[in-house]
Structure formats: structure tokens, C-alpha cells
Here is the input.
Amino acid sequence: MTGSAQEKAKIELRNVRKSFGAVNVIHGLDLTIEGGEFVVFVGPSGCGKSTLLRMIAGLEDVTSGDILIAGRDVTDLDPSRRGIAMVFQSYALYPHMNVRENLSFGLEMAKTPRDEIDRQVQAAAQILKIEPLLERRPGQLSGGQRQRVAIGRAIVRKPLAFLFDEPLSNLDAELRVSMRIEIARLHRELGNTMIYVTHDQTEAMTLSDRIVVLKDGVIEQVGTPREVYEDPNNLFVAGFIGSPRMNFMDAVCLSGNRIGVGDAVIVPPQPLSGMSEGDHVKLGIRPEHLTVGDRGEGALRVKVDFSEYLGSTRYLYCYLSSGEMVTVEQRDGRDFSPGEEAWLSCTAECLRLFSADGLRLRPAVLDAGAAQ
Here is the structure.
């Protein structure tokens, strides 16, 4: 697809709302997805990500707001007129048809010339490496092969955008990894706009140009995988993105821009706005940013509860004296026995602080006069 075609495939959501009776499930969302971009909707079950995708596809009515695809208002258009192709969690293949017939069925219904159908089917089969399977029926295919056929059926339509609704959920772990690679390669080759819904944050992190993190029908943050992982806007995003999840510890603000965590005192590298002495806050730290070391200034005392050895990585599950659990990722280091004491330290730059209402506390911005 050319660059100009990709620009036309921009998808815009303008104050989009969805209600089922008195229940509001999507709360006035605004979002722009650029042409050729791969965007992943991620969030816990019930957050509204699949509902939002179905609204873009035209499979759910919009209660209010507008949806534009390639600059055209499609809010009230039928799915077939929106220029999109959707790949579902269930493969939805016709069991009595072989792969070639499944791929060509939609084109035949659109009365596409036979030579064009053959050309499109062969091109899709070549892209997805399913040429040897064209004469087989779905019952003779593996789960991964069936999903390739479902994607091929979308490719032959030459859509402006692909919509994926948890397409890998029915596959085992090994197949999910290989299919992630296939979908990433497909996006690189085709260049279409793609929206992908998943509850699996590994898929979100590895596939997307940008991630849209949803909770209760509200967008919590939009950003690149690196942005949402390293620079979360709030406690929810920080805890949801990352496996194992970010550690959270109760802390209190002390005088002199210091933070008290249990018996330890930590000094952030920069003064933080919205923080006053005596305030109770949450301190967040990723497992890979904690180091087991000697007792020292700012080190946290913990007791090891369980050690999980995974070859190149070991996870220590520890408890603070307050009872809060802390997970530590080790790339090397000695074994620990249950109940053994350890001391944890980290660089202050890796700490993330959150207010009592869950919002990120960021470095204070000095005004021009103060900066001088």
C-alpha cells in the first residue's frame, strides 16, 4: 500500500459513547489512529476494548459520537461499506469448503472476476505461506493454520484497515509466539492500519506502535510500549503493564523531599510536584530495577518467601516488615532459602511515585524566574 493510501486510512474516534440501557460501557472516547499504524487496545476483562473494536467495525451501534475512517464519517454505515476487514478469536471458517474456497468466498459474493479472485487468493496464500494447504478443509488444519486462513480471508478484501479481536486466544503458548511474529511481519509487508484487541500485555508490548490502555470504558493512557512501561500516568497503568507487575509499597513524604518506606529513607533525584510533608503515597519499582545487596543507606530489609528459578532468570518473592510483597528479578546471584533476610536497593531514577488517588507524581516544573 502506498504512503498516500496509508494516510487515507486514518481512523478517528470523536467523543464516542456506548450504552446498553442504563449501563454506560464506553465513556466519550477521543482517539486518532494514524494511517499505517499498528495500535493495540489492552485492558482487563470488561474494560470495553472489544466493544470499542466492534463499534469501529460497525457490529455495534454508536450511542453518540462519530467514527471516521479515511476521512469519511462511517458512524451509521454498514460494516461492508467501511473498508475494514475483521479477524475474530474464532476462526469462523466454512467447514465444508477447502482453504481456496474459504479465501475466495467473499470475492465471489462481490462478483469479482474469476481471474482476479485467483490472483488475490494466490497472493494471500503466498504472503501467509499456506500455498500447500489450499485444497485442504479446515478440519484438516492445525489451529495456527486455521488462523492464517482467517487472516488470508481478510487480506483478499484489500481493506483500508484490519481489526483483530483477540485472534490468538485459542492457540497454545508456542503457536501464539509464532503467530505474533507472523502478524508483525504481515503489518510490515502490507502497511495497512491495524487495530488489535488483547488482554495479553505481551502481545501488546511486542506488536504495537502504540498501546491504548483501557479501564472501565475510559482510556487511561496512550503511548508507545516504552512510554507506558517506563512512564505510566497512573497506578493502574503501572500495575497492569509489566510481567511480573510493578511492586508497590506504602510510603510517606518526609521533610527535605525525602520518602520514607518502612525503615528506609529514599531521596528522589528531583523535587516532585503535588507532594507535601506527611502525605501518604505509593512507591513503585519494577522487579528488574531491584538489586540484592548489602545493608546500606536507602536499602529495604525483606524476608525471602519463595525463589523461582527459570534458567537465565530467578524471581525472588519477598515480604517487607509491613507484610507487603516485593518481587525481585535476578539475572545472577546466589540462592536464598525461605525465611532468609535480604537487603534490596535501587537507583532513585527508577522509582515511580503515585499520589493517594493513584495519579503519577512527576518532577516539579520550575517557572522561568526560578530557573534563572
Notes: The chain has two domains: 3-236, 244-364. Confidence is low (pLDDT under 50) at residues 1-7, 366-372. The longest strand covers residues 23-33. The radius of gyration is 25 Å.
